[in-house]
Amino acid sequence: MRVAVLCGGESSERDVSRSSGWAVAQALAGRGHDVVLIDPAAEQPILADPVPAGDSVVPVPKEPPAPADRAVLRRRMYAALTGGPEQLRSADKVFIALHGGWGEDGHVQALLELAGIPFTGAGHDVCAVAWHKGRCQAVLEAAGIPVPARVLYNPSEQREPPVGVKQLLASGPVVVKPVADGSSVAVRKVDTLDAVRADGELLVEPFLGGREFTVAVIGGTALPVVEIELTTEVFDYAAKYQPGAVREVCPAEIAVDFAEELQDLAVRAHQALGFGPTYSRVDFRCDDAGTPYCLEVNALPGLTRGSLVPVAAKGAGLTYDELVERLLKA
């Protein structure tokens, strides 16, 4: 196939996405596909055409891109996606290795749908719901999937935090995160009301002190459970992408019935949001009693060779190249 791999983009996960894109593109080239790698937000969008086979690693910097850069990146990305390049329009299929922002909130998917270009992953409507943590958790809760108590708070529109935030803090520390962002950018554990305030719309939920797990789902089938053993209190951006910051265990060293419970919850979350035959990654954290709660569902999870979905695939006996081929055809 002639495959265009989209990576980079305008989000805070831009650097992670470029690393994913290179890994995916090289793997597809190694499987015999004709691959072009495109970063629509770059000054020169075509990063490589054709992409050579290989397994070189593109490192992820310790800090995400500065928010001030996003306006320029968005202008470039809009121009590239609506006016070219020709390699994108002529592809048999687009492999979306974008993470966050327009790549994961449904914008890019909607444009490709309008242009009639087939692509990997879920459609624009599913991505839009999954990307907004508040909407996502509301859908999951309605489907009977356990989610944490939560309060949405927009400091630019509300002078004081809602009463619900104060009630959560009365029971202990809370986790504050952007309601629509990925890679745990700006995720914080706080224990005072003043510390809750930040820019943009926030989701505030209780800090869960138990173990952390994630389950990848492909086409309605759950891969082995991965446990994330943290050296920090929250799985933040630095912990996710710097070697040695966490230990990822797959299959997780847990009882069989508990692993099956997590896998069942992940498949139910995948189906409730409408992912169907595509793929997702469902994140869980347990409270002190060991009860799991679903934190979010990722429509376009990281695909670097060290990312959690490839780790889960390896636990299921799939090589990285086999995983990428499977996602291309899902």
The biggest sheet, with number of strands, parallel, antiparallel or mixed sense and barrel status, is:
6 strands, antiparallel
In the CATH classification, which architecture of the largest domain applies? 2-Layer Sandwich
Beta-sheet strand percentage? 15-25%
**Alpha-carbon Rg, integer:** 19 Å
Distance between the termini: 14 Å
H/E element order: EHEEHHEHHHHEHEEHEEEEHEHEEHH
Catalogue the unreliable spans: none
Question: In terms of structural class, how would the helical and strand content be classed?
Answer: alpha+beta
CATH class of the largest domain: Alpha Beta
- The CATH topology name of the largest domain reads D-amino Acid Aminotransferase, Chain A, domain 1
Q: How many strands in all?
A: 14
Helix content: 25-40%
CATH superfamily of the largest domain: ATP-grasp fold, B domain
Number of domains: 3
Mean pLDDT score: 92
Q: Could you say which overall geometry the principal axes of the C-alpha atoms support? A: globular
The number of helical runs is 13
Description:
The chain is α+β, with helices and mostly antiparallel strands. The protein has three domains: 2-120, Rossmann fold; 130-147 and 209-329, ATP-grasp fold, B domain (D-amino Acid Aminotransferase, Chain A, domain 1, 2-Layer Sandwich); 151-206, ATP-grasp fold, A domain (Dna Ligase, domain 1, 2-Layer Sandwich), CATH 3.30.1490.20. 36% of the residues lie in helices and 20% in strands. It has 13 helices and 14 strands. Strands 9, 10, 11, 12, 13 and 14 form a six-stranded antiparallel beta sheet that branches. Strand 1, helix 1 and strand 2 form a beta-alpha-beta unit. Helix 5 (107-115) runs antiparallel to helix 6. The chain is globular. 46% of the residues are buried. The model has no long low-confidence stretch (mean pLDDT 92).
